[in-house]
């Protein structure tokens, strides 16, 4: 394997889902729903295939989807963007992340992440030859330590990557935090890459897009996808929204990574994004009920549960059960209890920082969530 990928192992999500199958454990690890996406979107996909939308799409997206993304972004943020120049469709947000790093970061540039961070950020930055710095968000509230961020910024800092609502903690960046980060970025001429794939799963406060803050659109790449909002994580439709000078870099990388994304699925994605408001309200209401079951269940099991404002994840402190770290705890949980969670230490530059925390997902039907809680009550 190339040096730039030497330190990375099989992703923790793949490892854990494999163990779930091997041990017949209930999988509250990898974040994918065990229920299906909406009929009207599936039907749109079938129709697109039948209608012959089956050859290469335009590289940066089928026009109808670029339009639908721009319309959605205007509804959500009030920002008017040019679908032809500022929206790039990718194969999932994961490709948008890679294209952003490879298209906008030079070797030696510094990029600041907030730990715990989604694993692909560090790996794709490594592919781009960037230097990664990380600022640790600490429980109970995972607030942004602005002074630490300030001292981490140097003349080589090219970008700060944020993720709100935040995987794995469920933290949502507050207006004050975003304002403080924005000021630092403007002052130091730094870009923001913002991963907002859980924006429709914002329960405790309104989601705020960094791009909508004064002076920020021109230095922000907003990343999103269809997977979480429409319970279709296997479709792999994502996008990047950025001003033309930044979109250009993202598009250049995207052109040579995948060139274009599945054509019929893009047509169906456009239909999805034009769903009525009631769809988004219902999604949130359903997830709130699931969250309640898992959070109350985990508390009853005896975990210290940290408040999660958004996403379909919640992190807990496992230390009262006496295992030495998150990986040992997750192993015990799979083998002795029959439940899969995600150890969080892989999401830090310094794994020690995550050793007390594990992540559970509640993107499963209610029966599955209750069954997992019962197993833990019985056997932990
Ligand atoms: N985003 C999903 C999660 O955090 C996992 C995606 C993946 O498996 N790479 O669980």
Automatic annotation (TrEMBL):
Coiled coil: none annotated. The keyword Transferase applies. One of its GO terms (molecular function) is pyridoxal phosphate binding. It comes from the Eukaryota. GO terms for cellular component: cytoplasm. Keywords: Aminotransferase, Pyridoxal phosphate, Transferase. Residues 26-375 form the Aminotransferase class I/classII large domain. Transmembrane segments: none annotated. Its cofactor is pyridoxal 5'-phosphate. This is Putative pyridoxal phosphate-dependent transferase. The chain holds residues 71 to 450 of 452 of the full protein.
């Amino acid at each position: 394997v190339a040096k730039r990928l030497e330190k990375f192992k099989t992703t923790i999500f793949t490892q854990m889902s494999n163990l779930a199958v091997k041990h017949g454990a209930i999988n509250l690890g990898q974040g994918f729903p065990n229920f299906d996406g909406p009929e009207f979107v599936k039907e749109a996909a079938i129709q697109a295939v039948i209608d012959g939308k089956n050859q290469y799409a335009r590289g940066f997206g089928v026009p109808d989807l670029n339009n639908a993304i721009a319309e959605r972004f205007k509804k959500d943020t009030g920002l008017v963007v040019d679908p032809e120049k500022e929206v790039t469709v990718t194969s999932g947000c994961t490709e948008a992340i890679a294209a952003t790093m490879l298209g906008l970061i030079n070797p030696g540039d510094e990029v600041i992440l907030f730990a715990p961070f989604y694993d692909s950020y560090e790996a794709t930055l490594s592919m781009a030859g960037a230097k990664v710095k990380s600022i640790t968000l600490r429980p109970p509230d995972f607030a942004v330590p602005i002074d630490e961020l300030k001292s981490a910024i140097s003349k080589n800092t090219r970008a700060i990557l944020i993720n709100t609502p935040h995987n794995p903690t469920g933290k949502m960046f507050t207006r004050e935090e975003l304002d403080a980060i924005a000021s630092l970025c403007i002052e130091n001429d730094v870009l923001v890459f913002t991963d907002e794939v859980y924006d429709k799963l914002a329960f405790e406060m309104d989601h705020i897009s960094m791009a909508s803050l004064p002076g920020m659109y021109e230095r922000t790449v907003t990343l999103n996808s269809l997977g979480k909002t429409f319970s279709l994580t296997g479709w792999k439709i994502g996008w990047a929204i950025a001003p033309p000078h930044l979109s250009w870099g993202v598009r250049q990388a995207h052109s040579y990574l995948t060139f274009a994304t599945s054509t019929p699925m893009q047509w169906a994605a456009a239909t999805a994004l034009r769903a009525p408001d009631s769809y988004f309200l219902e999604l949130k209401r359903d997830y709130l009920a699931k969250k309640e079951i898992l959070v109350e269940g985990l508390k009853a099991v005896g975990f210290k549960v940290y408040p999660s404002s958004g996403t379909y994840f919640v992190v807990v402190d496992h230390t009262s059960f006496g295992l030495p770290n998150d990986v040992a705890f997750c192993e015990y949980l799979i083998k002795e209890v029959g439940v899969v969670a995600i150890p969080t230490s892989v999401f830090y530059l310094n794994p020690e920082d995550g050793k007390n925390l594990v992540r559970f997902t509640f993107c499963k039907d209610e029966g599955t969530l209750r069954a997992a809680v019962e197993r833990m009550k019985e056997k932990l």
